[in-house]
Fold:
Amino acid sequence: MKKLLLIAGLLAGSVMFANAQILTKSPDKRVTHQLKALQKNLNLDAAQAEKINTILLARANKVDSLRANTTDDKKTNRQAIKVLMQTSEEQVNAVLTADQQKHTRN
Structure:
């Protein structure tokens, strides 16, 4: 039983560490990672990749500035990030074809 708890604790710790590494990456690196995943899953062409890269990079920079802003209320910042995420998702969907949009919903 103790071994099982130890293994579960180590697994949870490694997952949290991996997530922390992703969050501490620069906006450029996070966007590159996201774009690679989108290209793999949706077979984006070069024009789509360029437009989506611009959208995601702008979003990442704005989210980072909101997270760094400690003077405003955290709830207000979270709401602003939520709106920003929704807006950027709509912008990305506008770049995608109908078939690609179906794949993003699944």
Remarks:
- The mean pLDDT is 84.
- The two ends are 38 Å apart (CA to CA).
- The chain has one domain: 26-105.
- The chain has five helices and no strands.
